[in-house]
Design goal:
- There is one protein chain.
- The chain is of the alpha/beta class.
- The chain has 2 domains: 4-279, Aldolase class I (TIM Barrel, Alpha-Beta Barrel); 288-354, Type Iii Antifreeze Protein Isoform Hplc 12 (Alpha-Beta Complex).
- Helix content is 36%, strand content 14%.
- The chain contains 14 helices and 10 strands.
- It is elongated, with a radius of gyration of 30 Å.
- The chain starts with a helix and ends in a 21-residue tail after the last helix.
Length: 356
């Protein structure tokens, strides 16, 4: 299987995960194709956009939500007021279908994963993906966290609507059974998340509190014109960004209204690449590109007057001027007290062969 997420994290590279979720059902209806064809179309477009991984959601309404389960999303965007009713519309895929999607993703070179919402799906997804994703909604679902942790694969853990003690407890549960990398994803459990609620500084806090854990961001804001939310998240330390993904942001309901499309994804990757370019290196050293400027803009020791061969050089005989191609101004104290090896005329850039 492709290990794009894990490998890019190890290399310190940015990871963009397209949360397909179950948006392919609506794409299928719009395009007049089957849900499987729509899911594959979304995978194709994600690959073309340069997205690193596609993530689905694997559940059955009966095991996820009680019949009496109220909505927690903006009902002006998604009119369904029952979690059970909404999930029931989009839960027809099972092991066979996800196996087909996993194999298809592999065949075109993009990593596949899916959030499991019950033990059965967690079991059959084991052979279909390299990384488990635990949603914010299951962070305190101790038995289910333990069940997935025992699979001993890397885990992406969203920490939306959680307090530090809950995050600590969930990490400790995972670590009892699992020594693979954990990535904590800052997340706001609000659909969509207003920009003023994005609370991106939490990313910096997570990096400080969990220095040995990779930090990321699971975003539910609507794509802004300059992608400032995601650029800021990355600059604050989110190496992994997960965002809902659709092929038509105008579709109503489900997760289309706060999703990115393939054009957004391509632009996001380009902007993050630009950030990486301008960030450069952490090394404290002169850049290769500064070599010429360094030589010409720095100063050399220069004769402030005519100096005769054999004369002892005094401070009054020296000044410092550009370029820095002669004896460096750093060596001022070394040169004072030395003897001129030859006649040196005023305004001459001193060289070591002139000194003895």
């Amino acid at each position: 299987m492709i290990h794009t997420i894990e490998n890019r994290i190890k290399e310190g590279k940015f990871v963009l995960i397209a949360e397909v979720g179950v948006n392919y059902y609506d794409i299928a209806t719009k395009e007049g194709i089957t849900p499987m064809e729509a899911a594959k179309l979304m995978i194709d477009k994600a690959k073309e956009a340069g997205i690193h991984a596609v993530k689905f959601q694997t559940y059955k309404a009966e095991t996820l939500a009680a019949k009496d389960s109220p909505s927690y999303w903006d009902t002006s965007e998604e009119s369904e007021t029952s979690q059970y009713s909404l999930f029931k519309k989009f839960d027809s895929f099972g092991e066979k279908e996800y196996k087909e999607l996993s194999e298809y993703s592999e065949s075109i070179g993009i990593e596949f994963l899916s959030t499991a919402f019950d033990n059965e799906s967690a079991d059959y997804l084991y052979d279909l993906m390299n990384v488990y994703k635990i949603s914010s909604s299951d962070l305190n679902n101790v038995a289910f966290v333990e069940y997935q942790a025992k699979k001993n694969k890397p885990i992406l853990l969203s920490v939306g609507a959680s307090n530090k003690d809950e995050i600590d407890n969930t990490i400790s549960i995972i670590r009892k059974y699992n020594d693979k990398p954990i990535t904590l994803l800052h997340c706001v459990l609000e659909y969509p998340t207003p920009y003023e609620h994005a609370n991106l500084n939490k990313i910096a806090t997570l990096k400080k509190e969990y220095p040995d854990i990779v930090i990321g961001y699971s975003d539910h804001t609507k794509p802004d014109a300059d992608y400032a939310v995601l650029q800021t998240a990355y600059n604050l330390g989110a190496q992994v960004i997960e965002k809902h993904y659709t092929l038509d942001k105008t579709l109503s309901g489900n997760d289309h209204y706060h999703a990115m499309d393939e054009k957004d994804a391509k632009a996001i990757i380009e902007k993050i690449d630009y950030i990486d370019m301008i960030r450069g290196s952490y090394e404290l050293k002169c850049l290769d590109s500064e070599t010429t400027a360094r030589a010409n803009a720095r100063r050399s020791l220069v004769a402030a007057c005519d100096i005769k061969a054999g004369e002892t050089i005094t401070k009054e005989m020296l000044t410092y001027k550009r370029p820095g191609t002669g004896i460096s101004a750093t060596d001022y104290d070394i040169i004072v007290g030395k003897t001129a090896a030859c006649d040196i005329t005023e305004d001459t850039i001193l060289k070591w062969e002139m000194i003895k």
